Amino acid sequence: MADSTEGDTNIQNLGFLVLALIALIAGLLIHSFIIGVNVTDWWKGRPVTPVDHIVTCLGVSRMGAQCADTLYYYVDALFLSHLDSPVTLLTIGSIYEFFTYANGWLTSLLSIVLCLKISNFHSRLFLYLRGMIAHRTVYFIGAAVLLSAFNCLIFLTISIAKVTKGGTYNKTIQNSSLNCTYSTSLYTYTIGVFFPLLFYCISSVLLFTSLYHHTTKMKMSSNLSINLETYYSVIKFVSFTFMFNTLYFFGHFVCVIYYYFYCAGLNWLYISLDFLPVLHSSYLIYKTAKLRSQMSKVLQNVMDFIFQRKDTETRENIEVVAL
């Protein structure tokens, strides 16, 4: 019975590793595409907007988080018995925490910039923030990175101090290899995510409210030549993005709470959350004209290469038959 249970656990872990690898490959392809397009435009001297800067850094943070998360799974599952100290896993986990916090801050910054750019509020404070943030986006990105590093450093310091003081490294407890060392992540994650989530919710609600009232006024006007499809498209984008970020943030919060009370990780939920940034980045490519155009070119080149290779193989087969 014990061998059967252990075999089922090994199969389950193998399934988790395969899913994590699939999410990693998909994430590397999608995020690197976004980064490559925007970096190429910057390198060639083409105009790059503040939104492009944020989206590029957001792609880097998401790609880094997926790499660290997948590396953690593989080290924990395959090399755990060869580790003499939990410091390795703590370091990888801290890197993942850093990119997760950066993702939160950059997502919040992107929402704020879009709100200031699209909304039609005309208060003095709103106009001041629009001009100030638009011209200092790079500085805000740097501040987001520093805040993420600070939160990550707090988590790493507390965790290492806990291990050094009296923590034990238990290699036998399933899903609890660090023996509740990550229990402190509940406080650090709550502190690190609260403010970016708050700013994100405020900016998203303001943007949605502005778009809703604007489209309502336009529908009530007698001008039938007005096209509302653009506004509806933006409303759909804001709604989808809000749903994605809500699931992503609270999904991580559920994982942290579960570990705090049961000292066990919800690996299936973490891996499911790894697919959300891939889906959102794919949707971002679809909704952005520049990224959509470049993706169409890439797919067209791939299809041409495949069909050209098939034609070459067909001609070679015909020549062999003729001989």
Automatic annotation (TrEMBL):
Keywords: G-protein coupled receptor, Membrane, Receptor, Sensory transduction, Taste, Transducer, Transmembrane, Transmembrane helix. Its main location: membrane. SUPFAM superfamilies: Family A G protein-coupled receptor-like. The chain crosses the membrane at residues 14-37, 98-116, 137-161, 186-213, 234-261, 267-286. GO terms for molecular function: bitter taste receptor activity; G protein-coupled receptor activity. It comes from the Eukaryota. One of its GO terms (cellular component) is membrane. It is a multi-pass membrane protein. Signal peptide: none annotated. It is found in: Membrane. Belongs to the G-protein coupled receptor T2R family. This is Taste receptor type 2. It comes from Eleutherodactylus coqui (Puerto Rican coqui). The lineage of its organism: Eukaryota, Metazoa, Chordata, Craniata, Vertebrata.
